[in-house]
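Researcher: I'd like a structural prediction for the single chain below. Treat it as a standalone chain; there are no partners to consider.
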Amino acid sequence: MAKRKKSQSVDATSLSQLSKKELVEILIKQQQIIEKLSQEIESLKARLNINSKNSSVPPSADLLKKSEKKPQAQQKDEPAQKRKPGGQPGHKGRTRKGFGRVDRYETLHPKNCPVCGETLEQTQVVKVEKHQVAQLVERPIEIVEYQRNHCQCSQCGQTTSLPWPNSIMPGQDLGIKLQSFLGWLGSYGHLSYEKQQEMLWEVGKISIGVGTLVQTKQRIEQVSQPSLEALRNWVEQEQPPLHVDETPWAVKGVKEWLWVMAHPQFCLFHGGDTRSRVELESQLGSHYRGVLSSDDYSVYNGYPVAAQQKCLAHLRRHFLRLIEHPGKNNRTLGETWVALIDEAFRHYRLWQKNGDECEYYDWVTQFKEKLCSTLQAGFSQGGADGGKLLRSLRDKAAQWWYFLDHPHIPPDNNLAERALRLAVTQRKVSGGSRSFEGFRQTANLLSVVQTCRFQGRSVLDFFEQALMAKSGSLPEPPSLLPVFDT
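Model: Treating it as a single chain, here is the predicted structure.
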């Protein structure tokens, strides 16, 4: 084992014996060490300040740092930094306007006068007060025993019976509606099997085993497969614009990856072994003829597509981080590009609001010139960190700014990131999956839930129709294919 080199101690006596040249050399070396250590300290400080606003770190990883100083009272002339929680001025409420239906009327009519005791049953009503409330009925879960009679004809001897009702699956203890509700609780409500058991007991006073709940989830996933397969085949044929992202998922304690391919009308999840190009190609093929929106992760770089739009929100966070990072002109460079990206987002939202293409493309022409001049000036001003971002802007310009000429493609990847939030919440609640088969089932159920939400449909109705199709009550399973306005 190599011995650690001891640092040389310097005292006043030894320094007084050195020549002027030797003293200068020592000072220069010390200055170099100080500068190096200062850069390392600033770099470490910048790493400590990484959050979801200046990097790709998810918002859930942000830590709320409490200041040791007491907050100062806000001055009267200072504008409020954040809006207050709750309903904002002008917000239109929903509940107070009623529920849109009345299932039962209950009349509260007094029998006798509290003053003289006169009977009021036949007295004319002079005023009616109405008050609607949503009530939880006494037994929301009903236990029904169907007794199926088999009757023999006295004339011909033929035995006849009626079919089982469409609301049940023969051989199953739980009705179709209750199974659909449990599927919603597990896939969208993030309730564990134990909590589902508790809910069934609290609400319906019924005891259901974990095995039954597991089989119910598996059954719902199985009956959803035909609809999902039809949607995947449609995507393979039509190759519409897609937003792609990925997030880690623990399977038996091993990191796997959950991929999402999102569109405004549907959402497909895929459980993969890796975060590599292989998983992307397994879902979209070796070449994709549509437009792919993603972040700047290396897997998407060079993937053959018709066109690609990289997330400008990610790029903005990179420049925000550059502002806080020490280096040559980092602050100036970062602030300049953050302002440009904000301008791009602002005009894109304006185009979404008014649809004025002439105004939008006039701005695009001027904005492109501003981009070129700012990029050229940046190379002469920026250091190593800024130069890396500028080279990406130069080499991948068609991918960063594709939306300028094609505004129907958003400049960010928010659709995929929002679609992943449901999965991330479930991962945090469940801790992942116990098997890869369970991981695959979770991905399929998440696909159904998010697709129904994107299409404005009821998840419960879809599960119910899929179960009825499996039992033969419906001719075919429900479709998840998008329907576009013509």
